[in-house]
């Protein structure tokens, strides 16, 4: 009976897709049950960095604004975590990161995945999709390490140990990476600010590192210290990373055939620090080097969109654009110096359970189906991408797949759903601080939503933020997006209800799929 109901639901929702195509005066014949799928995942881009949703922005994002005008923009979308690795894991598995861990994977860290994890590229590959990951991985590999770290050096005032290029066997195929998670093809540098500094194609470096990190007199606009020591290909130039990834993604798109569906996970290394806009983009914003890097990121998105159009693939392609978390703490100084608020109206930055740490840009474009220029206030999470795409493709997920994922296809086609779609959404970065969003209410189990550092007093004064002294926090997000009015003591029953539901989620066996 359960599977019959799922089948009936799938038929119903697919009917909604076709009826919405007809409503938009488009032929339903142009809507495929196997649309191409492109996910463009920015790195450390805040809600307010997307010009179309920040009236005071100092950064132009014409291509992303155009993408939003062609599809649906979600004004209340969230990454699973306020940092990188966990959010990527959550997007690709449809489960909250905290069911697995809280931290990031280092340069030579082990895979975040278990072999039992069911991933989005796996289910799409099994369904006949050609799958590719291009760009930042940052989810770990099984490296063939010959020796423990053999170099000790000072990095940003701290002594740390690092691997030499001689400590790694570069000729052994690297296991545990994208090819083992459902991707047919991978090309990238792993992570721009972590070793190894080299290009990896599929499961081998194109050229093995042959020296140790030495960038000479290379200059960066922000965050030069972020380059962690480790093996490097001699002459490695970080300024070539983003342009190279853009070209590789375009080349891969040009190789795709119209009759064979594809999935591209294009994980940008930008605008994450180190901030390194190429010279042709310097001065293109009024927000310093970071603003220029965001402008270049937008340009790269535009090149991908152009490649899809030029190759006749746009009409049958779903494009999802979002970011892994909110903006880095450099955003605080940027706001004070340039008047550009990367977090928009939200309190907090990367790592925070404050809204700014995980409230991210989110756009879905799907010609003939999603109404152009539409905006949804529905609360969604990046863990919902997997269930939604599975529903679109008529893929039945097993009980173990995407346990925290809600299907938001009804929101996209604006039919047959009741808001709120999600019973509740868990916000978390580190293991000691948690938030729970339920409808308009947001509960935090601590007196502060800060990650590792509180917001500075100067920034609090600039934005009118207050510090609180209650043991927990409660906000009504409908009227208080800036989290300035703490209602914790006024609504004890609501606090009790949400605290209990949060604990229920935390105790839940992640192998049991939520209906």
The CATH class designation is Alpha Beta
Mean pLDDT: 93
* Coarse shape: globular
The total of beta strands comes to 21
| Largest β-sheet summary | 10 strands, mixed
Low-confidence stretches: 1-11, 21-30
CATH homologous superfamily descriptor: Alkaline Phosphatase, subunit A
Tally the helices: what do you get?
A: 11
Query: What is the rounded Rg?
Result: 22 Å
Brief summary of the model shown:
By secondary structure, this protein is an alpha/beta fold. The chain has helices at residues 2-23, 62-70, 84-93, 120-126, 241-254, 288-310, 330-338, 384-392, 409-413, 457-463, 492-507; strands at residues 36-42, 72-74, 77-78, 130-136, 151-155, 158-162, 185-190, 200-201, 204-205, 211-212, 231-232, 262-267, 317-323, 359-360, 362-365, 374-376, 380-381, 425-428, 434-438, 441-444, 473-476. Mean pLDDT is 93; it is low at 1-11 and 21-30.
Give short descriptive properties of this protein.
515 residues, Alkaline Phosphatase, subunit A, ten-stranded mixed sheet, four-stranded antiparallel sheet, globular, disordered N terminus
Can you put this structure into words, describing what you see?
The structure is a single chain. This protein has helices spanning 2-23, 62-70, 84-93, 120-126, 241-254, 288-310, 330-338, 384-392, 409-413, 457-463, 492-507, and strands spanning 36-42, 72-74, 77-78, 130-136, 151-155, 158-162, 185-190, 200-201, 204-205, 211-212, 231-232, 262-267, 317-323, 359-360, 362-365, 374-376, 380-381, 425-428, 434-438, 441-444, 473-476. The protein has 515 residues and is α/β, with parallel strands linked by helices. It has a single domain (2-415), classed as Alkaline Phosphatase, subunit A (3-Layer(aba) Sandwich). The longest helix is centred in the middle third of the chain and has 23 residues, at 288-310. Residues 35-393 form the Sulfatase N-terminal domain. Residues 1-21 form the signal peptide. InterPro entries: Alkaline_phosphatase_core_sf (IPR017850), Sulfatase (IPR050738), Sulfatase_CS (IPR024607), Sulfatase_N (IPR000917). This is Arylsulfatase.
């Amino acid at each position: 009976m359960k599977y019959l109901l799922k089948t009936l639901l799938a038929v119903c929702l697919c009917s909604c897709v076709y009826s919405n195509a007809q409503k938009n005066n488009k032929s339903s014949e142009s809507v495929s049950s196997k649309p191409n799928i492109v996910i463009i995942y920015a790195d450390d881009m805040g809600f307010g960095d997307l010009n179309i949703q920040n009236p005071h922005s100092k950064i132009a994002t014409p291509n992303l604004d155009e993408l939003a005008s062609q599809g649906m923009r979600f004004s209340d979308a969230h990454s699973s975590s306020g940092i990188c690795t966990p959010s990527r894991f959550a997007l690709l598995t449809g489960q909250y990161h905290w069911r697995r861990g809280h931290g990031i994977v280092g340069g030579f860290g082990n895979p975040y995945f278990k072999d039992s994890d069911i991933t989005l590229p796996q289910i799409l590959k099994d369904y006949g999709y050609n799958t590719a990951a291009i760009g930042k991985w940052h989810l770990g590999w099984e490296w063939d390490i010959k020796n423990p770290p053999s170099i000790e050096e000072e990095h940003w005032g701290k002594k740390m140990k690092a691997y030499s290029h001689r400590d790694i066997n570069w000729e052994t195929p690297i296991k545990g990476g994208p090819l083992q998670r459902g991707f047919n093809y991978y090309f990238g540098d792993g992570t721009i600010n972590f070793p190894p500094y080299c290009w990896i194609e599929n499961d081998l470096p194109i050229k093995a590192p042959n020296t140790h990190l030495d960038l000479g007199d290379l200059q960066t606009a922000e965050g030069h210290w972020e380059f962690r020591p480790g093996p490097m290909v001699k002459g490695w130039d970080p300024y070539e990373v983003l342009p190279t990834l853009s070209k590789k993604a375009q080349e891969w798109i040009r190789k795709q055939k119209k009759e064979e569906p594809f999935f591209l996970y294009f994980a940008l290394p930008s605008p994450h620090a180190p901030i390194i806009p190429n010279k042709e983009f310097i001065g293109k914003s009024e927000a310093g080097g970071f603003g220029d890097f965001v402008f270049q990121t937008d340009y790269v998105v535009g090149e991908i969109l152009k490649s899809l159009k030029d190759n006749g693939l746009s009409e049958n392609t779903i494009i999802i654009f979002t970011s892994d978390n909110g903006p880095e703490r450099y955003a605080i100084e940027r706001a004070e110096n340039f008047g550009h608020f990367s977090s928009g109206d939200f309190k907090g930055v990367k790592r925070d359970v404050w809204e700014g740490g995980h409230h991210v840009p989110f756009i879905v474009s799907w010609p003939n189906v999603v109404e152009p220029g539409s905006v949804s206030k529905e609360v969604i999470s990046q863990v919902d991408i997997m269930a939604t795409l599975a529903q679109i493709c008529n893929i039945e997920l097993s009980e173990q797949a995407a346990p925290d994922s809600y299907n938001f296809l009804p929101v996209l086609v604006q039919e047959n759903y009741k808001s709120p779609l999600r019973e509740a959404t868990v916000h978390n970065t580190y293991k000691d601080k948690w938030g729970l969003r339920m409808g308009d209410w947001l509960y935090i189990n601590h007196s502060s939503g800060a990650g590792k550092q509180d917001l500075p007093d100067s920034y609090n004064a600039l934005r009118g933020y207050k510090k609180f002294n209650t043991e927990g926090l409660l906000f009504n997000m409908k009227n208080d997006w800036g989290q300035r009015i703490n209602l914790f003591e006024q609504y004890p029953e609501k606090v009790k209800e949400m605290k209990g539901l949060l604990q229920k989620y935390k105790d839940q066996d992640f192998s049991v799929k939520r209906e």
